[in-house]
Specification:
Length: about 425
């Protein structure tokens, strides 16, 4: 924010700044070369899941040497994590904003839904990174190697050999959390064998010269935008009347350039809030590509290797939400690595529920009907039930409420397709023609 803008007549003094600023990594945590040849745990990728797992391990008593390897050279403010506050996590106290009311809009209706006890919360990446790196630095047995590409790993006697661009280290256990960055070939393969809907988005973190946002509610999906290229919506997380994250989201396999996303955001800010480019300053931006899929991810490719985070299938297939799932699996994985769980050595795959698969199939096959379906869902399902469903905590009654609210005939075809595919998946390969 320029000084002129910050002190301008219309902008309140107390704008919560700090977004867009990279985090200073504690010196004591970072190493230039590995400090030992053998680690108890080597974690490839020190992003959301790698860092969350590392803290879980330490808090649960890991005292042996742990090495985190990441190719990044800095911790920029590269994303905003939002989810419903349905259970305690190590990070929810960092939330910059929380809303007990959320809105879904279509061209013809606006649906508001509220749940006082389970607000929708939003965390800035730089707050998360600053906090978790600070916590890790309190422990003498963890080290972070940055700017280093992990290349691969292989099994050796009593452990794994791990190769990075410059080094070779050994680990008794290896955790791969390098994020899901599928190649086109892998995507084609996923699309052939499972349902997938690409979620592509760009968000701008803006501060405006006059109050325009309703800070007491967030907009989860505003479908009242041009839908000709594919299913698209606006997502608005207001932190105050003059500050918000505004995202342009596609749930469609369309090639949208960064410039096109930005042009659409510009026109969204103009049409929805009457903002011209001179009326706001961009504090930061973020972008993402999240494949929403019911593809079955192998979380244990080898007995001593665990894949976690998006690489381990942590993303909720029908929504793209991942953060809460990562937090849940961090504790489970930490317990297993520390030998406090019976799962040790078992090969795991992540599966998703039938309802999730049907919903995803429906999104893939009938995107034009999605705005009406979402609006109906938020209008007819009691907020607490819907929040539980969206946060993976729904019980049978919540599922029944959801099914009753949805147009059943529309979903019948998708349900049949999913059922057929499940049956086909169960037929052993050697019995298929
Ligand atoms: C912009 C954005 C916004 C999101 N918002 C939400 C949200 O609101 N709610 C939600 O639930 N989910 C959200 N997600 C989805 C998900 O929560 C995040 O993607 C989350 O960061 C995934 O964690 P991860 O550990 O799998 O991957 P990452 O956090 O991306 O971490 C992967 C790490 O691996 C490193 N790496 C990659 N390759 C190598 C290599 N060869 N060697 C060494 N290191 C490597 C990367 O540098 C990175 O640090 C969002 C995703 C994005 C991209």
């Amino acid at each position: 924010m320029s000084e002129a803008g910050r002190n301008g007549p219309d902008v309140p003094e107390m704008i919560p700044l700090g977004r867009g600023i990279a985090v200073q990594v504690p010196d004591s945590l970072v190493i230039d070369v590995p400090d030992t040849e053998v680690y108890d745990v080597v974690i490839l990728g020190a992003g959301c899941s790698g860092l969350s797992l590392c803290l879980a391990l330490l808090e649960r008593g890991a005292t042996g040497p742990i090495l985190l390897v990441d190719s990044r050279t800095e911790y920029a403010d590269d994303r905003t994590w939002s989810y419903w506050d349905v259970e305690p996590t190590r990070f929810t106290h960092l939330a910059r904003a929380r809303w007990t009311t959320w809105r879904v809009s279509t061209a013809t209706e606006q649906v508001r839904s509220s749940a006082l006890s389970t607000p929708y919360v939003s965390l800035a990446a730089n707050d998360f990174y600053r906090y978790v790196l600070g916590r890790l630095a309190e422990y003498p047995n963890v080290r972070l190697l940055m700017g280093e590409d992990a290349i691969g790993y292989s099994e050796i006697a009593n452990g794994l050999a791990v190769a990075t661009t410059r080094f070779r280290v050994r680990g008794a256990q290896l955790v791969d959390s390098r994020g899901l960055r599928p190649t086109q070939g892998e995507l084609d393969d996923i699309a052939r064998r499972s349902t997938w809907v690409p979620q592509k988005f760009v968000g701008l973190h803006v501060v405006t010269s006059r109050p325009v946002f309703h800070a007491d509610e967030c907009v989860l999906m505003d479908f009242d935008v041009d839908q000709t290229r594919g299913l698209r919506f606006g997502y608005v997380l207001p932190v105050s009347p003059v500050e918000a994250l505004v995202e342009n989201v596609y749930l469609a396999d369309v090639a949208v350039t960064e410039a096109e996303h930005r042009a659409e955001l510009e026109s969204y800010l103009a049409s929805r809030f009457g903002l011209e480019p001179g009326d706001y300053e961009i504090l930061g931006d973020e972008r993402g590509f999240i494949p929403m899929t019911d593809h079955v991810f192998n979380q244990r490719p080898m007995p001593r290797v665990s894949k976690i985070g998006t690489l381990g299938g942590a993303t909720r297939p029908s929504t793209g939400y991942t953060f809460l799932r990562i937090q849940r699996s961090s504790d489970e994985t930490a317990l297993r690595l520390l030998g406090n769980s019976s799962e040790r050595g078992r090969t795991q795959t992540s599966r998703c529920s039938m309802l999730d698969r049907v919903f995803l199939r429906f999104l893939a096959d009938h995107p034009e009907r999605a705005p009406l379906v979402f609006a109906r869902m938020f209008a007819r399902v009691p907020a607490e039930s819907l929040v539980r469903f969206l946060s993976d905590r729904s019980g049978p009654i919540d599922s029944v409420r959801l099914i009753l609210a949805l147009p059943k005939l529309w979903f019948l075809g998708s349900a049949l397709l999913v059922l057929l595919r499940s049956v086909a998946d169960r037929v052993p390969h050697d019995r298929r023609h």
